[in-house]
Amino acid sequence: MICEDARLLIGADPDTAGQELEEHLRACDGCRAFREEMGRLNAAIRRALEEPPQMRVARAVRAQPAWREYALAAGVVLAMAATLAVWLLRPTDTLARDVVGHVKGEPESWLSTHNVSAASIEQALTSSGVGLDLASDKIVYAQSCWFRGHYVPHLVVETTHGPATVLILRHEQVKARDDFHEGGMTGVIVPAGDGSIAVVARGHGQVDDVAAELRGEVHWLPEPAQPPEPRHH
Amino acid sequence: MRNSPVQSPVSSPGERSRAATTRASTTALFEAMRPDLLRFAQWLARDRSIAEDIVQEALLRAWRSRDALKDPAAARAWLLTIVRREHARLYERKRLELVSLDDALEVPDHAAAAGADAELLTLRHGIMRLPIEYREPLVMQVLGGFSTEEIARELELTNTAVLTRLFRARLKLRGLCGPSPAPGAAREEQPA
Q1: Is the pLDDT of residue A221 over 90?
Q2: pLDDT digits (tens, 9 = 90+) for A107-164
């Protein structure tokens, strides 16, 4: 069993047990600490759910005149038009914000300390039409993630200054290098061929070396047919 | 040849008495479960009055199908399942008035929440804000006591999909509270 599988089982049910999992936990300090943390979190969740949520008393719903529905519809149309305009005219730093938002949405990616198999890295890259000539022993996390309408490789690379997250964005073009500090993270987005590469580190981590190295190692493969967008319940 | 005894269309006083006793015990069982059902429905619906409607409708359905409940020990899981389905059905057939969570959530009393309860309040708000696809399996597991396999069956998902949703739900809540230091942990983890 690898750490990724062990953490999925523990995160899904901190009380879960099984011979294979227990064997892995005996040998892995990180996963053992993760289980202890999830156990404490689960106890807190249980306490939180013991009481029903505190809601204000529901307000009486009155019949509303028809003109209000038309006004509401017009408001929705205007809001949609405004949203579309904002999206079309969005500045580059929105991309930085989305990158940081995505990275924060996968906090488990920072926890990984084991090298990912070459096959898993290959899978994450080729499913997004990306080739990368980087030594696989530096990569401790590799996923193909849904980001801005496309699956993109999401990697975590171990550096001498700590882990750095890399998103390889073949569909996001930037005119020039964009350095940013957002949500407690330091990052850079650099152009790479017809796309770009985003590198993010926590705090004031070093991202320049990784970005420079990757820029020369990334190449675009023929774009594969994209799998369908993840479905939500 | 002897005729078989004619079945009376009218039940005997003894049968009526037994039926009344069964009805009374079923009613008592359902009523005893009501607070649990209401709390479960409130965490799903995030609205007290809607939750009350759901529970009322669910209990009516359960009463009509009470013969299906063979083992009273299974009543809780059976009733919770009916409540969950009633909640899903309500959203399918009605256009509910959407209320901003910020308006609906009771603002915590910061003076009262200054102690150890502050984290619990944050967590409760965090659970309320989880999208339904994460909140529903989490509430079913922690509050309802359903296994991963039972949740998968009930939500018509694969087992892996349920594991992933539960995992992500906890990670989202962990992100809110921040990882607490693990005694003796091998390495210190920073919140992402």
Answers
A1: no
A2: 878 777 777 888 888 888 888 888 887 766 778 888 888 888 888 999 998 887 788 9
Bridge partner list, A143: A154
What span, in angstroms and rounded, lies between the C-alpha atoms of B84 and B58? 9
User: Which chain B residues are Cβ-neighbours of A46 within 8 angstroms?
Assistant: 142
- Do B81 and B135 fall into the same domain? no
B127 and B86 part of one domain: no
pLDDT at residue number B148: 92
Q: Please give the tally of structural domains in chain B.
A: 2
Residue B160 in any domain: the answer is yes
Inform me whether the C-beta atom of residue A122 falls under 8 Å from chain B C-beta atoms: no
CATH number of the domain at B166, please: 1.10.10.10
Q: Where are the domains of chain A?
A: 3-48, 92-220
Q: Is the pLDDT of residue A232 over 50?
A: no
Assess if residue B111 is contained within a domain. Answer: no
Nearest CA to CA, how far is B109 from chain A (Å)? 12
Rg of the Cα trace of chain A? 22
Return the residue in B37, B149, B189 with the most chain A beta carbons within 10 A, the one to mutate for interface testing: B189
- What is the band of B64 on the pLDDT scale with cuts at 50, 70, 90? confident
* A36, A38, A55 ranked by CB distance to B170: nearest: A38
Element (H, E) at A8: helix A3-12
The model's pTM is: 0.50
CATH number for B39: 1.10.1740
What is the architecture of the domain spanning A92-220? 3-Layer(aba) Sandwich (3.40)
Condensed to tens digits (0 to 9), the pLDDT of residues A17-45 reads 888 999 999 999 989 999 999 999 999 99
Interface check for A49 against chain B (CB to CB < 8 A): the answer is yes
Separation CA A132–CA A213 (nearest Å): 11
Residue of A5, A10, A13 best to disrupt the B interface, most CBs of B under 10 A = A13
A 10 A CB-CB count for A172 gives 23
Residue A14 burial (CB count, 10 A): 20
Hey, of A15, A55, A186, which one would you mutate to test binding to chain B, going by the most B CBs within 10 A of its CB? Answer: A55
Q: Do B190 and A11 touch (CB under 8 A)?
A: no
CB contact under 8 A, A8 and B191: no
A211, A207, A209, A205: which is closest to A191 by C-alpha? A211
Same domain, B123 and B76: no
**Residue B149, φ and ψ in degrees, nearest 5:** -65, -40
Domain, as residue range, for B44: 23-94
Shortest distance between the Cα of B47 and any Cα of chain A, in A, equals 7
Same domain for B163 and B122: yes
Q: Are residues B50 and B90 in the same domain?
A: yes
- Judge residue B94's burial from the number of C-beta atoms within 10 Å of its C-beta, 0-12 exposed, 13-18 middle, 19 or more buried: exposed
What pLDDT does B93 receive?
61
